[in-house]
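Technical annex, item 7. During the second reporting period the consortium partners agreed on a shared format for inverse folding records so that results from different sites could be compared directly. Each record opens with the tokenized structure and is followed by the designed sequence. A conforming record, contributed by the partner at site C, is shown below for reference.
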């Protein structure tokens, strides 16, 4: 070993952010194992690194005792005091046992330890860097795709997008720039694994934060999002400032703000409704664009369930294609919604006869 090792450790500390002391400590532990493996020793060993010379020294450690029962681990008080009169029973003495050819073993071990620590440090650095982006949007480059994933490069790391996180009908071409939502970051033995998504509702929220300054600064708040990715999304917004229209602000002049998000999501329909503290008003808003006549709650049976009465000519609009409008409204509000046409409610009220419930949860 030589001073070159010290220079290399200093460079690693600057370039990789790996503490020189951490590497030296790891090398000392590894060299103890290497010494015992190569020289068949079982004593208590210590390795010390001489930073001035860049050399490692091996020591066997023995305890000072009144009567020696195992010479590998113990030394008598008389023998210890021949070295120094200051030794007492219970003290420990280091005897240097560095072999003449230990430099080669030390160099090989040091190389292995450094490489291992560099890999660990790079994994941890990448994990620490990208774990900060969890729940955020990052723009990456599509690298390739297979039956399981679309691979998106961020430079230092390659993220994966599972099939369930890919927008239906969206084609991912190599070298295409793509905005993705960082859904999860895991620190595995093979390195940081970043999972990204184009279907997560969080993507929609972050896109609106980028397009609407009032959402970014908190003047307008996105209260809830219900999304069927690639098709339709409903967003509930509110503002504590009575002078601000949260829906109009989010939509933007001539719909420019919402259109920018729609374009990023390849034409996904986005409904923006006003959140209301009164559940009946919020539920009515959530079924937009359908008109709502009344919202009735059954607080005794199920306080999170309601019947929504709509005009007959708005029944299909309220339910939506394949029940989508009502389904998204239920997700947005957290209520189980049963939609009834006005004529059916009037029929029950007038005759008391039982009728089949129409609508959708």
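Designed sequence (site C submission):
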């Amino acid at each position: 070993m030589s001073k070159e090792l010290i220079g290399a450790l200093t460079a690693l500390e600057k370039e990789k952010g790996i503490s020189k002391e951490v590497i030296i400590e790891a090398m000392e532990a590894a060299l103890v194992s290497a010494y015992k493996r190569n020289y068949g020793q079982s004593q208590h060993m210590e390795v010390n690194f001489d930073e001035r010379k860049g050399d490692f020294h091996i020591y066997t450690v023995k305890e000072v005792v009144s009567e020696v029962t195992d010479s590998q681990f113990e030394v008598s008080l008389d023998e210890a005091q021949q070295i120094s009169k200051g030794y007492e029973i219970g003290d420990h003495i280091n005897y240097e046992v560095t072999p003449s050819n230990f430099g080669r073993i030390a160099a090989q071990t040091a190389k292995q330890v450094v490489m291992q620590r560099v890999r660990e440090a790079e994994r941890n650095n990448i994990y620490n860097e990208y774990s900060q982006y969890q729940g955020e949007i990052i723009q990456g480059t599509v690298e390739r795709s297979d039956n399981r994933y679309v691979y998106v490069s961020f430079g230092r790391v390659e993220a994966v997008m599972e099939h369930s996180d890919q927008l239906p009908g969206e084609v991912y071409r190599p070298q295409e720039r793509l905005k993705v939502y960082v859904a999860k970051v895991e620190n595995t033995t093979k390195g940081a694994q970043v999972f990204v998504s184009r279907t997560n509702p969080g993507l929609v929220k972050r896109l609106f934060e980028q397009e609407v300054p009032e959402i970014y600064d908190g003047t307008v708040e996105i209260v809830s999002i219900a999304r069927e990715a690639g098709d339709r999304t409903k967003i509930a917004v509110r503002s504590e400032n009575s002078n601000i229209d949260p829906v109009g602000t989010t939509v933007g002049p001539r719909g420019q703000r919402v259109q920018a998000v729609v374009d990023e999501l390849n034409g996904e329909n986005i409904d923006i409704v006003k959140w209301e503290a009164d559940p009946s008003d919020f539920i009515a808003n959530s079924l937009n664009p359908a008109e709502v006549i009344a919202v009735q709650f059954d607080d005794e049976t199920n306080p999170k369930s309601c019947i929504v009465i709509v005009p007959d000519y708005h029944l299909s609009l309220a339910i939506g294609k394949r029940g989508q409008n009502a389904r998204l409204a239920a997700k947005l509000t957290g209520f189980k919604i049963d939609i009834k046409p006005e004529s059916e409610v009037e029929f029950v009220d007038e005759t008391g006869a039982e009728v089949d419930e129409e609508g959708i949860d």
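Residues 347-361 have pLDDT under 50 and may be disordered. Residues 278-361 form a domain with the GMP Synthetase; Chain A, domain 3 fold (CATH 3.30.300.20). All partners now use this format for quarterly exchanges.
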